[in-house]
Amino acid sequence: MARRPSSPPHRPSPADMQVVSVRIHPVKSTAITPVSSAHVGLAGLSGDREWMIIDENAAMVSARELPALFHMHAEPTEDAGSPAVVLSAAGASYTVRADGPDVKATMFTRPPMQVRATSRSASQWLEEVTGRAGLDVVWCSNPAERTLNPEFSRPDDRAAFQDGYPVTIASLASLRQLNEWIEEAGGDAVSIDRFRPNVVIDGEVPFAEDDWATVQIGGVRFRAAKPVDRCVMTLVDPESASLAKGKEPIRTLSKYRTWDGKTWFCHHLIPDTEGEIGIGDLVTATP
């Protein structure tokens, strides 16, 4: 059995939990796209992080180094029979489709995974809206090629360009507790958007998700892979105009939610079945 990160003592699971928000991020690190429902495949939610921005070395570029991506919107579509995405930012839009050659993404997974390039380069458009040259867009043509961390997954698990695992779930009960701690220290509350989850649920018990082993959302079953260790991307409010970094929520998480040398919020899930999930679905979990 895979080792799970050590965690705080067991808490009882809430009796009633419900989905209150479903989100996809068509291009990794770009703006959140709320949806009322989504199809869950073995590689995650349909349309979620299936595209990625790379640099001239075919290495991933995320909002960690280019925060302007938070203000770029993306809409998955189809063009001339190929998967396509419409990028929008600064009042301009640009469409690319996955009809180019297969290339290797050199700095995203180990070993590098195969991705699909586009025949119509977005480099010039991306430079105009972000100020950075040498960028382009690729599509995940084969999620099954990607190998997940074997410590928390099975050999046939897969994902597109998500961070580590196919689906991320967040609890508003946990967020309320986090914001209570932040405000007690004189800080300003943060929104769930800082954590960029796919599924947001509400219930009564904060951080009950720490102890989950399996989760059912509507008719779809998931394994709880591990909690999510948080990085500096959470220091940026994705809705702010300045995209300046603050101290929260990492400062407070480091006080209350630190173990194994990292800070933790949200949980990674791996689908065991496929199907539709949506707002209003009941959520049940087992430890």
TrEMBL record:
Transmembrane segments: none annotated. It comes from the Bacteria. Pfam families: MOSC (PF03473), MOSC_N (PF03476). Residues 141-286 form the MOSC domain. Signal peptide: none annotated. InterPro entries: MoCF_Sase_C, MOCOS_middle, Pyrv_Knase-like_insert_dom_sf. PANTHER family: MITOCHONDRIAL AMIDOXIME REDUCING COMPONENT 1, MOLYBDOPTERIN COFACTOR SULFURASE MOSC. This is MOSC domain-containing protein. It comes from Flexivirga alba.
